Structure formats: C-alpha cells, structure tokens
Amino acid sequence: MPHGGWVREKQPPESVVGIAVIATAAFTLFAAAGMVLGGALGAVHGRRVRDTLGRIGRGRRTKPADIEQAVRDALRDDEATSDLDIEVQVGEPGLVELSGVVSDAIVRRVAADVARAVLGVEVVVNRILVRDGGKPAGADPDPHPA
Q1: Does 117 fall in a domain?
Q2: Nearest of 58, 53, 118 to residue 88 by alpha carbon
Q3: Edge-to-edge strand order for the sheet containing 123-130?
Q4: Which range marks the domain in which residue 112 is found?
Q5: Model pLDDT for residues 97-143, shown as the tens digit of each residue
Q6: Which CATH number goes with the domain that contains 121?
Q7: 10 Å Cβ neighbour count for 77?
Q8: Which are the contacts of 47, defined by CB distance < 8 A and separation ≥ 6?
C-alpha cells in the first residue's frame, strides 16, 4: 500500500479487455455464420427454429384435436406438402401419426419435419409410403427413417 493512506484501484490490463472484446465479437460472428450456413445447407428447418424459439414461455397444446388441426394447418401451409393428401391422426397428446402416399422420399421426410415442428408434437410416426420409382436418382436409402 502506498504512503498517504490511499489505495489505488486495480483495473484490468488493456490486453485483458481487448481479448474479451475480440472473443465476444468472434463468438457473435461464428454464431451468425453458423445459422446462415445451416439455413443455406438445409440443416436447419426455418419453421422448426421459429417454433422452438416460440415455445419458450408458452404452454403446450394438450387436446389431441388441437394438435391434429395444427399439424394439418402446418402441412397445408408448407410449400413442399401443401398439395399432398396426408392423413394425420393423434393417438394421445404429443404422438402424431402421418400416413398417405407421396412421390419421393424427400417429401416424406419434409412432412415429418413439418409435423414435428408443431407446438405440442413430441413424437411423429411416419407411415407415409413412397410410390415405386419415387426415390431420387442415386440416393441411398434413408438410414434414419422419420
């Protein structure tokens, strides 16, 4: 302690403050880049992200009829599934079963993703069939069926 009875306050060195600012900026930049890249590559389904973020602070739908209607609406509103004849059944709250016939495996997968993104849906049983010859050329069988 210096003479005179006063105490000099310690301040972080400028290098520590600089590192903290750079780390914060880098984290923000990489997070934004990850979201943009994920969206561009299709790894992040936009509706699912919005719905997941929208669930914070909201209650779940618990009535099977409400969940069923919400899934039907979501399938109708999605560009890839709007013209399809997909049957939706809710056996118990949170469990949705999809059935029908579609022209390719990608559309089948999108339908399950759309249903899964609906508030209150916890499990999707995807019984949608793909018409013979509906698999995209050169595609491998889906190792993780929805």
Answers
A1: yes
A2: 118
A3: 86-92, 95-102, 123-130
A4: 60-130
A5: 999 999 999 999 999 999 999 998 999 999 999 987 655 444 455 55
A6: 3.30.1340
A7: 11
A8: 74, 78, 114, 117
